[in-house]
User: What shape does this take?
Amino acid sequence: MAIIIKSKKQIDGIKISSKLAAATLDYISKYVEAGVSTEFLDDLIHDFISENGGIPAPLGYRGFPKSSCISLNNVICHGIPSKETILKDGDILNIDVTTIVDGYYGDTSRMFTIGEVSAQAKKLIQVTKECLDLGIEQVQPKKRFGNIGFVIGKHAKANGFSVVYQFCGHGVGLQFHEDPQVNHISPKKSGARMKPGMIFTIEPMINVGKAEATIDKKDGWTARTVDNQLSAQFEHTVLVTNSGVEVLTESGEN
Ligand code: MF3
Ligand code: CO
Ligand code: CO
Assistant: This one.
């Protein structure tokens, strides 16, 4: 399938949805603390999105049961919010929000920390954010998608971490997941060339230990590190402009 070049009208719609996704993460940040369940946070996310004219895209997507993904510690991505999962001191977590507004999708995630976290966890989160920012710097018309994964892979490895290769970024906007697959580790200058009007996510998942993920056999979603070491992720939705890049899910708080 070809990579969609979005029209002005579509770009405007995707911008609105992306702003709501970012605002949802700003909103939920006040509630992320020790003692609350991830289901409690998911309920708040559901209501905030609904009250602001959106639909949480994960809910019912391929059978996903909740409105957001909340992934703690050794969970790489697609953690299912649950009343049994209670946040505690030292936890690190990613909250991933995707909104639909007027049919248009925006997708973003951030890391949060509970109380005092380990030096290793802090470094992992810092490096993962840098990986996203370095990936975004590679977005420019005529550049190849592979450059994104090249710089991310280099930075993660230089810090002794590994890059998850079983999950990728993706085109987004008219659907939740569109072409292309945006690899977070790839050879320089590989892949398609970027063109103005393309919209996609960059969402590196970086591990302290082994790169491999295993999916929970019971729930079919939760992706964990094989060695149970920590994993972190940040995600933005970005637009290729005539001169470079615009980050559509940026907010005052990230
Ligand atoms: N938001 C995730 C992504 O960044 C996808 C979640 S799919 C779900 O692509 F079904 F788990 F919500
Ligand atoms: Co995404
Ligand atoms: Co996402």
